[in-house]
Amino acid sequence: MVDKDFAWRLAQELVRIDSSDPGAYEDEIERFIKGLIEQQLAQLDSPVLDAVQIAELEVLPGRRNLMVTVPGLSDEPRLIYICHMDTVTLGDGWNAGIPPLGAIVRDDKLYGRGACDMKGGLACTIAALVHTLERVAADGALPRRGFSLICSVDEEDFMRGSEAAIAAGWVGSREWVLDTEPTDGQIQVAHKGRTWFEIEITGVTAHASQPWKGADAVAAMAEIVCALRHAFAALPVHNELGPSTITFGQIEGGYRPYVVPDHAKVCVDMRLTPPTDTAAATRMVEQAIAVAEAAVPGCHGSYTVTGDRPAIEHDPGSPLLAALKHAANSVTDADTTVGFFTGCTDTAVIAGKTGNRNCMSYGPGSLALAHRPNEYVPHADIVRCQNVLIALVDNTLWSASGQVGA
After folding, report:
1. What is the reported pLDDT for 341?
2. pLDDT tens, residue by residue, 365-395
3. What is the pLDDT of residues 97-134, one digit of tens each?
4. For 262-292, how does the pLDDT look when each residue is reduced to its tens digit (9 = 90+)?
5. Can you tell me the distance from the alpha carbon of 331 to that of 362, in angstroms, rounded to the nearest whole number?
């Protein structure tokens, strides 16, 4: 039964399962969640629950998306909770006595890899699903609006899990889609875009004592880095999403200190806000390469776009936003802040690829703690989020039209 601490206890179990990416990946945790849902269905033993569908989709070898669907009686858009099962690598730097997979509880905080990103939120969505199954069994009838929980793979890498869910028809442009990334108590309805480039420079080797006989690819790459930093500093700032940003996350080149390098490569992460988009970013990269080629004769540049996620802007008319804000306000007895998510999530992929305007994030914990040693989620956040997700299910699945006051 779903009591106040159902998600809190479940989050501890989930944190103990290694689903790091790269690392152990999602096989064990997916099997654990599927088994838990099957156990709940067997315990409820209600004929109406025969309509519940459990589907798996192998996205990569041994890495499966999981979807559990409670069908609705109407043609209204389904409510979908989507959560990724993978975490970043376990990493170093954890305090003594706080192992990454220990699920240690101290001062009402659950510590461990994925505690806030996003096994705490995943546990809350499972709690809402179990609540839904219990209510359907008690009513002896399906709800008006359908409901699905999608557990995805690969979110911490290339987001191939959410892409596969779209390709398989699990989610599209009509559904109301919520992920439970850590949002610091906010409803976050917009995302910066995420565009990735790999830029390469070829040059000519020479002895470092005679550099004029070669063409320094690293020096040319430095020109590109500086040109792009200056170009980004001059970009317009979005009134909600803020400035576009650029990070040169990985760079390599050269052989030895005494050899003029004939090759350099940099991997670039751009978080773009309107009106700047991938086309504009591509023009900036091309201009930066031209600057480098002029500054370091003999060098030649090329680039590849390795990731392209469009920015998602706030839609104040979203019915999911109205319903979620109503549920959150009711549970917390406060006016829930509506903000934006600085990262890129599964719902951002769905919104960008399908044009769905009802995609957003609301989950326990703080993004500032994600991907770091000593990651944790507070008990109070888990309880709040579980209650909000259950309230959203109750308000939208069983109301006459799914419409609620804001």
Report:
1. 85
2. 999 999 999 999 999 999 999 999 999 999 9
3. 999 999 999 999 999 999 999 999 999 999 999 999 99
4. 999 999 999 999 999 999 999 999 999 999 9
5. 14
Rounded to the nearest angstrom, the gap between the alpha carbon of residue 301 and the centroid of all alpha carbons in its chain is: 32
Q: What pLDDT digit, counting tens, does each position of 181-209 carry?
A: 999 999 999 889 999 999 999 999 999 99
Task: Work out the number of other CB atoms within 10 angstroms of the CB of residue 297.
Answer: 11
Residues 18 and 361: their CA atoms lie apart, in Å, by: 24
Instruction: Give the residues across from 360 on adjacent strands.
Output: 178
Residues 6+ apart with CB under 8 A from 155: 84, 86, 161, 162, 345, 346
Which residues, 6 or more positions from 323, have their beta carbon under 8 angstroms from its beta carbon? Answer: 176, 392, 395, 396, 402, 403, 404
Burial state string for 388-402 with b = 16 or more CB within 10 A and e = fewer than 16: bbbbbbbbbbbeeeb
Say whether pLDDT at 402 is over 50: no
In terms of C-beta density within 10 A (0-12 exposed, 13-18 middle, 19 or more buried), how is residue 16 classed? middle
Residues 6+ apart with CB under 8 A from 125: 81, 83, 149, 180, 389
φ, ψ (nearest 5 deg) of residue 346 = -60, -40
pTM for the whole thing?
A: 0.90
Average pLDDT, the chain: 96
Residue 5, burial from CB neighbour count under 10 angstroms (0-12, 13-18, 19+): middle
d(CA 111, CA 105): 6
Residues with Cβ within 8 Å of residue 376, at least 6 apart in sequence: 109, 110, 111, 112, 115, 116, 365, 369
Q: What percent of the chain has pLDDT over 70?
A: 98
Partner residues linked to 81 by β-bridges: 149, 178
CB 176 within 8 A of CB 320: yes
